[in-house]
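User: For documentation purposes, I need each entry recorded in a consistent format: the amino acid sequence on its own, followed directly by the corresponding structure tokens. There are two entries in this batch. Please keep commentary to a minimum and don't merge the entries.

Assistant: Recorded as requested. Entry 1:
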Amino acid sequence: MTLERQQIPVLGVHATPLRVQELVAELTRFIAEGGTHTVLGHNLHSVTLTLSDDGFRSLYDNSDIVLLDGAPVLWLWGRTGKAEGPVMDYRLGSTDWLPALHQVHGLERIAVIGAGAEANAGAVSRLQQIVPGARVSGFPGEGWGPALEEDAVAWLHREQPQLVLFGLGMPLQEEVLQRRLAGMPPAVYCAVGGAIEQLAGVQKLAPRWLGRMGLEWAWRLLLHPRRVAYRVLGEPWVLLWLLAGRKLGRTRPGK
């Protein structure tokens, strides 16, 4: 079964909008079927990369699930009128659905890749609480490079997880999936960004009321100005330029 892909107005990308319980049902199906599956999320950063990088676009086009992560992407999709109930229920950042993993039937082996050793261990411990009885193992991602990447792939083959949480940050985690997915063991691979540090309590989550107002960017800018300043203040202009270029390309004579 393939989920319906829905176009996000203006942005020219597609997603598979789901709520938490719908995602839980899909993860349960993936675990039962076996094989390799991917779960990604769209925010303005991923949209910019999708429009500017063919490899990134291919990864998203071939992903089993592309969640609505960023508030602007969610709001634009909401204009389609396809939401059943509150539109905000379809905004699924990683920390919105990870606490529901205990509801995924048959989930017994989880791997956590990314963050520093302390944060990785903290996330492993938290997931053991969320999914009692599951075997949760971790592989820190600090200092990621070709040698560590080789070690991580070999580690995955030894662990044989059913669900892999890739938290290397965007776009590194997506680049690794582009390079390595075909050679990694069958599992559900989820790109979760900074959720590993958030699960471990190393990175403080924005209050949920800010998230529902679409103001998480302000919280991140306040706490981590050097890390997110370009993404918050500069990258939207890059996205507008890319969108304008696509629009002009389609409207030129002969196009």
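Entry 2:
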Amino acid sequence: MKTPRLAAAFTLAACISAGCGASAFAQAGPAEAEQNDLNDALSQTNNSPLEFIRALEAHLVKYPKSSKTAELERALAKAVLDNGDTRRLVIYGERVVERNPDDVVLVEGLVRALLAGDPPKDFAEKALKHARHYEKLVGGLRAEKSPGRISEATWQDGVERGVGNALRFQARASGVLDQHGDAIALAEKSFATYPNAASAREAGKWLAKTGRRDEAIRRFADAFTIPDPRATDAERANDRLRLGELYRQLHQGSETGLGDAILEAYDRNSALLEKQRASFAAKDPNASATKVLDFTLASPGGEKIALSSFKGKTLVLDFWATWCGPCRVQYPLYEKVKERFKSRPEVVFLAISTDEERERVAPFLKENNWNHRVYFEDGLSRNLQISSIPTTIVVGRNGEIVSRLNGFLPDRFVDMLSERIDEALKQP
């Protein structure tokens, strides 16, 4: 199965092969023999990532002056990135990034490839340059709003992690270049930006390299104890090994007292991460929401409502969007259901907009005279795994989901939804 990035590479190469219409590659004008060779080569890859990569490489060797070189190298870079081929990524990634310096994913992949294993100094120099650029690219996203259905907290978490990674990459490159002071400072800044095992480990490595063993022990203790789902068991085992080695060097071969240092590090980092979570929660009230009633939703007018205020009531959630044709057809049917339950205050109907362009919602409601009680989804659709609209969710009085209707049958919808609501009302 192809992953999204590799699928994109296949699509790009297929597009190049097919020509994608006269407008897409009008200036390319490949010779017919080259086009036929490319078509034949790609048709024989059998969706194998490695064969796909080899086919494009062979084509570029055969046609070194191809007018499609830039597009094919881009397809290659995306494919080798997804395939974890660091050797080839250094080759093609540099060429593509030179042409497309703002490709965030590829720039990060290139930096990782340049720093893989025990990199030579010329690789470290290139990595340092690209890592600084990567920091600017990711840092610039701090001021942007969360796109699509990603919660604000998730978006900000990803941005800060990206900046932290950029600083850690710079620390690694600086250390390889024997700029140990810079390496330590950058690693410490990385940990302060986004505390995790990798940044603590990086700081510990260069502190130990410069003989600052007390400080290195503290950082390896951080790497060993900090809650970090991305840290592997093997990495933690190595952190423990290094921690013990450094501690024994300072304490005449004894590890007495090391346990206390480890517990102190655990407590310190747990508190640090709790403070970070609280900071994200201040920006996004849904940062730690796991159930429907945990969410707080905003309306087009800016008012916010906590769904917990509906505990004890039956909640009917209509997930829709302004661009959704079927949602418009379904609207009057919802009104009929609402009419059936208008004397039942314990039944609450909420329309949940999934629009990415939120500014369109208020004008749409006014233009179409919709009297829905509308709120933005604010991460709720992702939590409920809403994959298509319209979708209707009925939540029982205890906050648990009672029913889900994906799409609707026009001639049955009113009765079906009414029956589901009646079933929910009967539940304790």
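Summary note for entry 2:
The radius of gyration is 28 Å.
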